[in-house]
Write a structure and sequence with these properties.
Blueprint (H helix, E strand, L loop, with lengths): L17 E8 L10 E5 L12 E3 L5 E7 L2 E9 L22 E4 L4 E8 L5 E9 L9 E7 L6 E6 L2 E6 L5 E7 L7 E2 L17 E8 L3
Parallel strand pairs: 1-7, 8-14
Antiparallel strand pairs: 1-4, 2-3, 2-5, 5-6, 8-11, 9-10, 9-12, 12-13
């Protein structure tokens, strides 16, 4: 007995969608070219989010022309190449996250929306080495957690030399351990103040060499 194929929902017609026009600017109010812009809403079906995606032109202008109507459409914008981070993950959110929210009706065009990018993120260039040989360790596990909300963490593993975007305006605790189980765990401490929180500087890359001692 053959099973009937599940029917896929038909894409919405153009008249059922909305349009949002606006501009992306930097923290100083200057237009940002080639910023990634998309719309999202809690009312969207999971597989359609984000449904409308675009990039800004030389004047920072954008047009989202296939927006699913909803009363709470949030406009996201970011530019990773300039350290502007997508803030869809809680770990990267600035302490005060402000993104425009508009209501969109079927067939409606919403104009005059301004999206102001948050301050440039920072990058941490991490190198984890053996304390005796000074050679890179084969693999590591890491955990970054926010001071203002310890449940907002970013964890993972992989290469011991890595670049990581870091949020601005909040202290970050850093924990490192080697995959081989032969080295002691390491936790960040500011060499000047003794604070256990690393504080990134906007738009800058900080190089950090971590040396793990054998157990």
């Amino acid at each position: 007995m053959m099973m009937a194929a599940a029917q896929q929902p038909s894409p919405p017609a153009a008249d059922d969608l909305g349009i949002i026009k606006g501009t992306v600017v930097d923290p100083g109010g200057m237009p940002v070219e080639d910023a990634r812009v998309y719309a999202a809403s809690d009312h969207y079906p999971p597989m359609s989010r984000p449904y409308s995606v675009t990039t800004t032109n030389a004047k920072g202008e954008f047009v989202l022309d296939r927006v699913i109507p909803a009363p709470d459409v949030v406009i996201h914008a970011y530019k990773d190449s300039d350290y502007y981070m997508d803030v869809i993950f809680a770990f990267h959110n600035p302490p005060k996250l402000e993104m425009p929210e508009v209501g969109v009706k079927p067939g409606e065009t919403v104009t005059g929306v301004t999206v102001r990018l948050m301050p440039k993120a920072a990058k941490l260039r991490l190198n984890v080495r053996d304390a005796n040989t000074k050679e890179l360790i084969l693999g590591i596990g890491f955990l970054f957690c926010r001071e203002d909300n310890p449940t907002h963490c970013l964890g993972g593993g992989g290469e011991s030399d890595r670049d990581q975007f870091m949020p601005i305006g909040v202290g970050i605790s850093i924990k490192i351990e080697a995959d081989d189980g032969k080295h002691k765990k390491w936790e960040y401490r500011d060499p000047r103040t003794g604070s256990r929180y690393f504080r990134a500087k906007s738009g800058e890359t900080t190089k950090m060499d971590v040396y793990l001692r054998k157990k």
